[in-house]
Amino acid sequence: QTQLMESGGGSVQTGGSLTVSCATSGFEFSTYFMSWYRQVPGKELEWVSTIYRNSGHTLYADDVKGRFTISRDDAKSMLYLQLNDLRSEDTAMYYCSTTVSAGTTRGQGTQVTVSS
Fold it and tell me: What is the number of other CB atoms lying within 10 angstroms of the CB of residue 93?
């Protein structure tokens, strides 16, 4: 059973940094691309970033490019998102996600709140 569990969220001031993590199990992590999404209550789920297997290629949404860094540790089956220069509009629930043969899965999310 594919399981994803995010952690590391919290409250931070504008301009600050935070790293959120995603622990995974139940699938061969190293062979799948992984993504981060975020959602604000009342708004649609927003794609943030994707990392392909072997960490060979990464993609970012325009509004986080240059501020966020996605990475993975295949030995630990862990996914990370380093969030730098945080802005109030980055406040959201952050989810990790992947698509395996059984379908697309995401975790329960970790809340990031940015305040001035």
Answer: 18
pLDDT tens, 46-60?
Answer: 999 999 997 779 999
Q: Please name which of 42, 54, 50, 58 lies closest in space to residue 91, comparing C-alpha atoms.
A: 42
Strand partners, 95: 37
| CA–CA separation, 29 and 32 (whole Å) | 6
Contact 49, 58 (CB under 8 A): yes
Q: Rounded CA gap, 104 and 4, in Å?
A: 11
Question: What is the distance between the alpha carbons of residues 20 and 9, in angstroms, rounded to a whole number?
Answer: 6
Cα 29 from chain centroid? 15
Summarize pLDDT for 90-114 with one digit per residue, the tens: 999 999 999 988 888 999 999 999 9
